[in-house]
Amino acid sequence: MTLALVLAALLAVVCVVAVAFPFIREPEPESDSLHDLNDDERRRLELLEERDRALAALKELEFDHRTGTISDEDYRALLGPLRRDAANALRALEPDRAGTPPDKPETREGRPTGGRT
Amino acid sequence: MAELGRAALLVTLGLAVYALVAGAAAAYLGRRRLALSAQNALTAASFSTLVASGVLLAALVRSDFSFSYVARTTSEALPLQYKISAFWGGQEGSLLFWLAILTACGALAVRLNRAWARDLIVWAVPVFAAVAVFFSFLVVVVASPFATQAAPLDGAGMTPSLQNPYMLAHPIFLYLGYVGLTVPFAFALGSLLSGRVDERWLVATRRWTLFAWAALGIGQLLGSHWAYVEVGWGGYFAWDPVENAALMPWLAATAFLHSVMIQEKRGMLRVWNILLVLLAFALALFGTFLTRSGILNSIHSFTQSSIGPWFLAFIALTVAVSLTLLFRRLPQLRSPTRLESPVSREAAFLYNNLLLLALCLTILWGVVYPILSEAVRGEAVVLGRAYYDFFLRIFGLPLLLLMGIGPLIAWRRASLQSLLTTFRWPTLVALVSGVVLLTLGAGSSIPGLIAYTFAAFVLTTIVLEFARGTRARMALGAGSWSGAFFSLLTRNRRRYGGYVVHASIVILAVGIAGSSAFDSVAEARLTRGDSMSIGDYTLVYQSLDERVASNATEIRATLGVSRGDRDLGTLEAGKNAYTVEAQLSNEVGIRSDLLTGEDLFVIAEQVDPDGTVYFRVFVKPLVNLIWIAGFVFVLGSLIALWPNAREQRRLIQRSSEIGLPATR
Amino acid sequence: MARQASPARLVIALSVAGLLAIFLLYTSIAGDANPSIAPSDLRNRTEKVQLAGVVLGPIRGDAHAAGLRFVLRDMGGDRRTGVPVRYSGSVPDLFKVGRQIVVVGRLRQGVFVAEPGSMITKCPSKYAPKQSGDPA
């Protein structure tokens, strides 16, 4: 009975310490804000996804053609658009590295950054 | 020690509430330390739930009947393994078990994805916490496993049919499946809440979904095998509401696993994927509700209880909140690409999705029909086996065929010309096997024949894919056939693991078609020395014995079995009379033919005092393929599930490229 | 699905139409739907129904000859709600006086004749303590 209560109290203390730990470890942090993606970074993430998607698709197409699952005719028809997608994504990413946002007409402006709903 | 259990659950509830409130506040206000603290609360909650589970397990093992749960579900004489299985057997224990898996999965999923999806996780934590609040509320307030009483001398014991090894594994897998579906749900909702609707939530949860889905599949197969071997009515699936309850989320998750690929490869179907995840999770909750509320007539009926309304309210809340969020994010979820052609791999996946969803929803309709008709007409109308069988054929057979077509069509668009060449061999094999089977007499069941033919088609495409892939790997410089085969598997585990799973589904379909469309049954009342025949088997009733075991009297009829001129030995079938529980149970005799996969299945339906026995005998062709399919299924799932270091590296690199700090 | 491409719309429209057609087909050819009612609601209804109730003894007869004979009463009702039932075919392990069962069949001359093999038993509860003196 008493042992159970002691153990329960111990458990509660351990849990409270675990919860409070981030505050104990950094009592006065330089910054306490979550790094939130801004529109620019978000756009880059999308481009990176597009790039990886196109490159993966190219690789798979190459292999499927090699195995014979995809005919020469289909291969030729699909190769062009995929290469174009990959190139577009890569090109759009380039100016970003210099720090300027890509000059795209569909850049959405003024989108809220958080999930403030 | 019940106080410790109760206290630990209270701590869990407190931590879950804290993780919900603090997690939401941290995400909303963008506070880093608070977010970390909420994550720690989730981990701590899994720890305190573990402590509570330990207390209950210890009480079960020690037969501490001052716990009313222990007294209700076990007895002193119960073997140790069934004392343990009572943990997830009763209602309160199973809710605690659910909570334990939920918090563990949540904490683990959050830890594992911290490196590259931190901004997403911040929002997933409060979702996990919300689900945990619900379940810990149930075990703290509504159905506590730690209620105490004056200890009786012995417990009430366990129903005999549950005292078998299947009950050690079958419920665990089902729960892992049900609860595992929370992970994709939490991340999907997290992505909606945060507005991070990029594909990372998919990548973060893909393996979890696959894991939950595989566990659910294995759990169901174990349940079927249990029904077949132990319950002894001659079947393995009865479209019972509780069986359907596990099948529905599995179908929804299957659809999701396929449509995910369209989003990953083509960026389409974003809304659809979120809807599927929501559906799978809601159906998993609904399944728990069905089994626990006793609202429907089912062979499996559990303790009817008061938690039903709570579940309904929670499901309604979940669906309402998710749909509202989804609606608000619709503009961001527009897909950048569109379907280019109705003849393409993504289109094949889309047809597959529609069929799976149609099957899932017709089953749901069948399950809720009695409730709906009661509400509308004042009289519950129950849809029978014929309803489900009909729709299984209508939707299942095209699905089977699509499994063979999908992998051979190119993404985006495929020309008809190239389709003709790719499908030449599979079609030829399918047609030939169809004709051969027809001449062998398989025409007695048209759906069965179609299933066989489609199965031949799909198997051919799978074998071809593996053969071509291996050959291409050889050409690319892999040394041996085995080396090429291995490198093929490791380079694209999802794809080739997926093919293995497809193969298992084909084997399953052949087993189901064989044993349900081409089975035969005979029954007869025999006195000693009499014989009966079924197919080319002859059975002679030789003797009747009565043995006294520790907890039951075993009555067994011995039958001599022969096939043609060949003597196949003897088979025993009978009944156990459990003395304490005052219950009878059928103990069936099964003779499996390892070469053909056929079972001879004998039930001693009725044993009369004068020694005559009424036998019911089935011959079930190919039924063993169903269990073999289970092993292939596990193998394929494991191949697809195996962690992929290269993918992880790419994801981390991607997030560091946009300047998202990888740690903290 | 906002702003779908036309082939996708076509696919969805076609599949909705297909679904509808299948439902019509189903209701016209199959139709294995039975009302589920309590014994006291049976009265003079003679169509095929699913009867759910509690077994009242005595149980007489042979399930594999002329049939078992027993009475089925309402769940939570008394003896007056009972209806005589005749059943043949396989009998589930759990069948006995006091059990909840479900049978499918129709009323013929005051006796509910169940279809062979249609009986399903409901365990009163899997892990619950023995019901204290279920009226039998």
Summarize the structure in words.
The complex is a heterotrimer of chains A (117), B (664) and C (136). Chain A is built from 3 helices and no strands. By secondary structure, chain A is mainly alpha-helical. Chain A is elongated and about 80 Å long. Chain C has 2 domains: 1-33; 36-122, Nucleic acid-binding proteins (OB fold (Dihydrolipoamide Acetyltransferase, E2P), Beta Barrel). Chain C has one helix spanning 6-29; strands spanning 33-37, 49-62, 67-73, 83-87, 100-108, 111-114, 120-122. In chain C, strands 2-3-4-6-5 form a 5-stranded mixed β-barrel. Chain C starts with 5 loop residues before the first helix and ends in a 14-residue tail after the last strand. At the A-B interface, helix 1, helix 2 and helix 3 of A face helix 1, helix 2, helix 6, helix 8 and helix 10 of B.
What global shape of chain B is seen?
Answer: globular
For this structure, the quaternary state is: heterotrimer
Strand content of chain A: under 5%
Overall strand count of chain A: 0
Number of helices of chain A: 3
Shape of chain A: elongated
Structural class of chain B: alpha+beta
Low-confidence stretches of chain B: none
What is the share of helical residues of chain A?
A: 55-70%
Task: Count all strands of chain B and give the number.
Answer: 10
Q: What's the mean pLDDT score of chain B? A: 88
Measured distance between first and last alpha carbons of chain A: 48 Å
Give the low-confidence spans of chain A.
98-117
- What integer value in Å does the Rg of chain B equal? 27 Å
Q: Main beta sheet of chain B: strand number and arrangement?
A: 5 strands, antiparallel
Helix content of chain B: 55-70%
Largest interface: A-B, 58 and 75 residues
